[in-house]
Amino acid sequence: MHADLGGAVVLGTWPAWGYQIQIKGGLHIQDWQTKNLNDSAATSYVLDGTIGFGFISSGISYSLRIAAVTTSDGDFDSRASAWVTVSCTPTGPPHKVLGLTVTAGDAKLDLSWTAPVGTVTGYEVQHKLSSAMDWPSDDTDVTGTTHELTNLMGGSGYDVRVRAVNSFGAGAWSDEQSGTPTTPLPVPTNVTLTPIAYNGAPALLFAEKSPNAAKYAVRPQIKLKTTAAWPARSDSGNFRPAPWGIT
After folding, report:
1. How far apart are CA 62 and CA 56, in angstroms?
2. 84-88: strand order across its sheet
3. 123 within 8 A of 93, measured Cβ to Cβ
């Protein structure tokens, strides 16, 4: 019996009426998992994630064992032979990335996802406008499970996908997720401050000669010219059209 195939496990060779195969390994298969093989003509078998063992992952060490069943009644639990056990570490590309989430920000999208089990050396990230048919030919290489896409067009929808890679190649692309970056508020221009008297007290008049937005939230900061540090910005204040007084 041997076990060595990219992304899966191959067992063979044996003569019998049927077989009971078991596997365990890693954090995701901690107890023996069983596959009953009712096929006396088989001389090999592929164990992968499609037969109820969960993911068989590259770079994870597994223990495998097989016992021959010599009776024809299919009673696998009363197998006649002793277990034959081997260990192996499958090779191959990573599994599909799961849990991709997209959070929108000002002209950006923040991405996060769950690392697949097994050996992963990095990730490839792709994004495109939702209105575009084709994905770009170039990928963004990422080492962790988070990434920030910047310099995007606010108000435009984007599609995003991620895949894991290792020395054996790239895994399957994640399910696509979408997000729409917000549009950053414009920066006020041509701002002037004019000393005035307001209710008998000194004040400053804030004005913008060429407003580029209908309204601003007036949350002012003010300091003496001789003071190096600005005070903490106030997050209170109402939306007011310019000009507006600061007292």
Report:
1. 9
2. 29-37, 18-25, 62-69, 84-88
3. no
Question: Mean pLDDT, 10 residues at a time, over the chain (247 residues)?
Answer: 41 60 76 76 66 65 80 60 78 89 95 90 95 85 93 94 93 95 77 74 65 56 77 54 46
Instruction: Take residue 23 and report the two structure tokens written for it.
Output: 């596997």
Full-model pTM: 0.61
Task: Give the separation between CA 156 and CA 129, rounded to whole angstroms.
Answer: 7
Phi first, then psi: give them for residue 76, nearest 5 degrees. -70, -30
Tokens of 34: 């069983």
Gap between the Cα atoms of 62 and 69, Å rounded: 23
**Among 100, 116, 156, residue whose Cα is nearest residue 28:** 116
Give the strand pairing for 239-240 and 146-149: unpaired
